[in-house]
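Try it yourself: sequence plus KG4, in.
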Amino acid sequence: MLILSVESSCDETAVAITRDGREILSDKVASQVEMHALYGGVVPEIASRRHAEAIEGLYREAIREAGIEPRDIDAIAATFAPGLIGALLVGLNFAKGLAFSLGKPLVPVHHHRGHVAANYLAHPELEPPFCALVASGGHTLILGVDGYTDYRILGCTRDDSAGEAFDKVARVMGLGYPGGVEIDRIAEGHDETAYKLPRAKVSGSPHDMSFSGLKTAMINTVHNAEQKGDTLNIGDLAASFRRAVVDEIVPRVIDCAVSEGYKTVVLAGGVAANARLREAMTDAAEKRGLRLYLPPKKLCGDAAAMIGAQGYYEFIAGHTGDMSQNAYASLTADYTTLPER
Ligand code: KG4
Ligand code: ZN
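Structure, out:
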């Protein structure tokens, strides 16, 4: 089954062709990062306009590169939640137009389920059930994936997402946007014990996380040094921060997987590209006898192939939409029915 998929929830416009949820025929992404970097973060209005400008060209390229004709497509999948509402609507409306004109089914796909499904493209043997960490720019969640479309939320951040913390801290440190990539790069080979940074204690759920205290501590460290005229070792500071984020995430995910009886752990989302997180998760999973799946770095960030992968399983489950399909800025991955329009 060939699926044409569209992703436009944030600052990447993307169109892909995938087969049976497991194989990429083409995966075209137009990043807006350079534009948003001028402002130090995503500007929603600019994002929507850029999506509208880029999407048709990407569609044509995706079809051409896959070596197919539009009539060969069996279904059109699109991200419908969560994300920037204006940005989501550009991709979803394009997908609706295509589904209508080609007379093919429309498959609405949740962005976080898509991130998880990126792993199906890289690991043919991977099947639910498993425990997944989705760590992106907007969310940090531990999910129980009991079936391809059967999700439970087992833990989440109480405040900022890990990606947001990376991006904000990078900005204060004078590094580029998006910050996660820069901090990861600069931290490499540096002393991660050089700066003492707090570790959060979240009362209540043992699997919930918090990153805002850590973010504030980093901002204070930078500002205090500026005021006193001290020189910071940026590499060591980046390494210490990256380690603190990893310490917040890894034990929570591993303990959650073990306590819920999962044998397999899957990482997903932009932050899953983090070198230290991948290393620490690999060690921790091995120690606790868990099988770990990491998406290749190129499948961690936002793209459309992951939406096509999940779209295939949503389609199999009968989760199709129609021309009244709406987009939702916030909707959790464990939805079973869609909110009223
Ligand atoms: O999943 P994603 O591409 O987009 C959203 O759905 O938000 O995630 C983007 C986030 C950004 O916050 C970015 O800084 C972070 O992923 N990120 C990283 C790395 N690469 C991207 N964070 C830490 N280390 C990285 N190597
Ligand atoms: Zn994402």
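One thing you can check immediately is this: The chain has two domains: 2-116+301-316, 128-299.
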